[in-house]
Description:
Elements: H1 3-28, H2 35-54, H3 61-90, H4 98-116, H5 118-121, E1 125-130, E2 136-140, H6 142-166, H7 172-196, H8 205-223, E3 245-249, E4 254-257, H9 259-265, H10 276-279, H11 284-291, E5 299-307, E6 310-321, E7 336-343, H12 345-389, H13 395-424, E8 432-435, H14 436-445, E9 453-456, E10 461-464, H15 466-483, E11 490-495, E12 501-506, H16 533-543, E13 547-552, E14 558-563
Parallel strand pairs: 9-11
Antiparallel strand pairs: 1-2, 3-4, 3-7, 5-6, 6-7, 8-10, 11-12, 12-14, 13-14
Helix pairs in contact: 1-2, 1-8, 2-3, 2-8, 3-4, 3-6, 6-7, 7-8, 12-13, 14-15, 15-16
Amino acid sequence: MDHTALIFSSFEAAFAIVTIIIVQISWRYRDRVTGFPLLVTAVSAAAYAIASFIMPFVSDPLTWHLVNNIRYPLGALIATGSFFIAVEFTQNEQYKHPIVIGIFGFLVLLDATVALTDPIHRLMIADQFVTETGIYAAVLGPLFWVHVIVGLGIGSVSISILLSNLREARGVYRTQNVVLVVALGILAIFFAVQSVAAINDRFDLATVGIVGYCSLILWGLFRADLLKTVPVSRETLLKSMDDPVIALNENDVVVDLNAAAIELFSVDDTAIGSDVEAVFAEYPALKTRVGRVELEAETRDEITLSRNGVTQYYDLLVSPIVSRDTTSPTVNGTLGRIVVLRDITDRKQYETRIETHNRTLERLANVISHDLRSPMATAQNLVTILKLNIDEPNESAERSLSELEALIGDIEAFASHLPALARESTYVEHPTEFELAPIAAAAWRAVDTDGLSLLVADEITLSGDPRRLRQVLQNLFQNTAQHARPTATTVTIGHLADRDGFFIEDDGPGIGAAQDNEIFDYGMSTGDGTGIGLAIVRTIVEAHSWRISVTHSDRGGARFEIDTNPT
């Protein structure tokens, strides 16, 4: 072997070794986004470089033909792997459709079939001959040029995808994007030159492109965090979102953030690629809170952030980012997590005002209730003294004394119920979501409903105060038990058909039409009751910003309708 041949063979050997190193490195990153197609590309590139290295040493014509041709499907695999690296990096999920993957798989399989059966049909290598240096060379056939055109076409599409993404890339993403564009450009150029103007029969220029491509990928791994900070959340983050949003990968490195987050944390695009602790440096409470959340967990909490003497309240949501492509390998099933901060300062200040108002209202009710007890007790004592001092009161005087006693009793009842009315009228500050059925069952057990049965006809989910709603149902059940038996047999709860809300109805005698508008008034009773129960029902319903009305059921009984979204 002459010196020139030795030099070329040494280059081929060195290039093969470099590609093997790339395979070892890419294996460690195979579970990251773009890691799997990179592994496929690296393995194919290593096999291509090894085949190019051993070709000059093959003396059997058939073996040389097969070793030469095995490089063609390997080249197709390199082009395919590079395409899917570009697709995953830019998050063009539509190109990962099973049909697209199937088309690429078919092309590679077809390329391999044609290449390895070429000694029979001679459509890729039309002929082969021995050169003056004693090695084999090929006369290219028509399918070889089809192979080249398809391969370069795939490369061109990959570069176009990356260039389209480059316009919007920021921070470290721009560097990564440029690395991939340049690497693919080098790969395509050297493959094209080798195909149309090879410089030496002993040296394959395509291996230079492969090594250049793989070397840039290697540089990107260690200098631009190519697989550590891929833009996993670009489709998740909406540019128009007013709330600060920041996306982290599984290593808590910032991979994206929107304009609101940039303003809140006083950073710029260079924050992309930085550790989250650096971005949250001025907010240690936030750093601690986010750090406690496991990668695959979702949590919502309220957090107070103070800066420059100003206190702001935020609703903190930390959610895992899960790939929409279930076939794509990820670490622990997640790509990272999204941190969303929604400013709730106005709401918290409003709640504080409401709480202050509620405390004032309840305190005032207690004062009035307390202050009424003393004069009512005095009045009752005076009535008692009058009864004792009047030996034989006439009918008119006796009736007046009885009415006066009843009036005093009503005022005392009002005074005793006033704190409860004030308490239940306060706005529901922290509504929770709950199912109605178990609340209804608990209220039913608290009432003497002997002879009645309860039917919850629908699954109903509400947002409110379950304790207060239990009191509503308990009072309504008590009303039915007192006034609708023995005619009534069943109390039914179900969805309202024409609007948001639910109904409670019975099959009893119903209520008079004249009472419909007055039944919820304080002191209004259809029987021997105090008229307090339904007044509290309306008070609690309105504290939820709902509306209650009464009508007749299809079976003639009373039907209470609670509209949970009144207009």
